[in-house]
Amino acid sequence: MIRDIRDKKILVTGGTGQVGSFLVEELSKKGANVFVIGRDQKKLKEIESLVKSEKITFLECDLTDIKKNKAISESLNKIDFLVHLSSEMSEVYTDPIDNAHNTINVNINGIINLLSTLIKLEGIVYASSTAVYGKVKKIPVNEKNLTNPVTFYGCGKLGAEKYLNIFCSFNSIPLTILRYSTIYGPRNRTNQVIPAFIKKALQNKAITLFGKGKNIRDFVYISDVINATMKAITNNQEGVFNIATGKKCSTYELAKKIIKLTNSKSKIIFKGISNELDFLSDSEKAKINLKFKSKINLDEGLLKEIEWHKKKA
Amino acid sequence: MKKILVTGAAGQIGRLLCEKLNKDKKKFIGLDINQPKILNFPFIKVNLKNRNNLKKIQEKLEDIDILIHLASTVNSGQDLAVDGIDSVNLNIHGTLNLLENLPNLKHISFASSYMVYGKPKKNIINESHATEPENIYGASKLLTEKILRVFSEKKNIDLTILRFMGIYGIVPPNFKQAIPSFIEKILNKENPIVFGTGKAKRNHIYIDDAINAILTSIGKKSDGEYNIGGSDAPSNLELIKIINNVLGSKIKPNFNSSKNDEYNFITDISNANTKLRFRPNIGIKEGIEKTIRKYNMLRKNDS
């Protein structure tokens, strides 16, 4: 069954982030009635013009105290569909215990509060992360793999998956969980490896690799992520799906590509050993059930992210 | 010198565990939000949900090197709006509040539950079975496991996760559970109520064995997840037969077909057997006899 999203009231949490902002634009273009919830009206960034032109509605509120805000609760009561992207940040505090409290607050307390106001939902898409897998015995990793997160961030994501599962089965609401791989492309404001390398390369500064740069990663381009998320919203497929390319890239290959694409004079320095884990997603299930396949190859995607960083600088 | 902290010390399992530690002359402190009625061991009354109050008592926790973490919400509902926040606040935030005040911790023994698994995909469930909890209690236990795992790896602490089957033989009885409700009804010469066909089997564990499992986990290298269950896996119909035999009665059950979602739930305890040297000592018949004796004592004292 294909879901028609025209005029549907769709709430996107984390709507100002990288995935959120592109998704909001796409949903709005397809005629959905988009609502975004966020902590700060001043931090709308790319979606500011959409809010100003009243094409989308911005609800300024912290997820953890929605219930106190009557006007916002009332708007939320009418939402038809939830895309929950909130919490793109990983570890923000220096104290690990503070990080753990924070990730649980944002991921679990936040979603529980939000769900209690959404009384006529017909579906949920939850943006999880491959961080839920943590330590894996072999790659590629499919959705049946055990989940042993190695960060509190991964714990928060996994916890939210489990609480959402219970909520959705209790209330008979279809739930799609998307476990995104490392996302890159324009609007990438993280401090992950791709933006970090690009920034170094653009300044001709040395790029440091740990453990000889042999770590394997699976990078998925933002437009592919948006495409997959749109398919999850419209195709109405319940279950857990890895969203990735299924193509491996070592950090050494990545650094070399970025240096070449930026015509940089940066040198690669090898240092110590790496404590990162190799990761590669098996993305067959999304291919079969969501009809999703990544289209953008790494060189093409990196060029676009490089352009974005250049413009921003 | 080892010093143990037992959270949930006023709870049904914690109380008995503390009695045993006391008898064995172990150095320990009990901790709970409620004070036990009979208190003959060192005890701290504090709410784990209150981060500031825990910071205030850090001094008392400084020399703790073993944590037996039993404190938890007990509600196993499915309604997130009702039980969700409470399960997160106590089980997750409460655990974190505790951990940051235990600077010399070397070992954690955490009481988890078979409910982390959800609906069985196999006849016998081992520790690598999928974890898809179907209720909030199971989800909060699973999340606590994961948080404890990340914390213990960061701090180089041994973490023993004990995934308990349903524990019976506890007083006062919880009549929502099968065994206490059957015994109570049959003692009253009433028909016990069986949901569904009553044929689904479970390896219930007797309280003394559960406490033994906790004790076997401390004082040795026992990092990992362990199923802790009984050696017998009776169905509800078999349980009623055993209870009738012990009491010399022949009371038949009444069937209630409103819940037809029945399945066997039998856990593989071989991992605990080989690595913890844990073996349940009390078979189902003996456990039922002991439980009935306890209930009879309770009734005598009440009347």
Can you tell me about this structure?
The complex is a heterodimer of chains A (313) and B (303). With 313 residues, chain A is α/β, with parallel strands linked by helices. Chain A contains ten helices and 13 strands. Chain A has a seven-stranded parallel sheet with strand order 3-2-1-4-5-6-11, with helices on both faces. In chain A, helix 1 (18-29) packs across helix 7, helix 4 packs parallel to helix 5 and helix 6 (193-202) crosses helix 10 (298-312). The longest helix of chain A has 22 residues, at 96-117. The relative contact order of chain A is 0.13. Chain B is an alpha/beta fold and 303 residues long. Chain B has a domain at 4-164: Rossmann fold, CATH 3.40.50. Chain B is 40% helix and 16% strand. Chain B is globular and about 60 Å long. The mean pLDDT of chain B is 93. The A-B interface holds A 96-97, 100-101, 104, 108-109, 112-113, 115-116, 144, 146-152, 154-155, 158-159, 162-163, 165-167, 169-170 and B 78-81, 84-85, 88-89, 92-93, 96, 99-100, 128, 130-136, 139, 142-143, 146-147, 149-151, 153-154.
Keywords:
heterodimer, A: 313 residues, alpha/beta, Rossmann fold, B: alpha/beta, 7-stranded parallel beta sheet, two-stranded parallel sheet, 10 helices, globular
What's the SSE pattern of chain A? EHEHEHEHEHEEHEEEHEEHEHH
Output the number of helix runs of chain A: 10
- CATH homolog superfamily of the domain at 4-164 in chain B: NAD(P)-binding Rossmann-like Domain
* Overall outline of chain B: globular
CATH-derived topology of the domain at 4-164 in chain B: Rossmann fold
Q: Which residues of chain A form runs of ≥5 with pLDDT under 50?
A: none
Secondary structure category of chain A: alpha/beta
CATH topology of the domain at 9-184 and 218-244 in chain A: Rossmann fold
Number of strands of chain B: 13
Q: Can you tell me the CATH superfamily of the domain at 9-184 and 218-244 in chain A?
A: NAD(P)-binding Rossmann-like Domain
- The neighbouring-strand order within the major sheet of chain A is 3-2-1-4-5-6-11
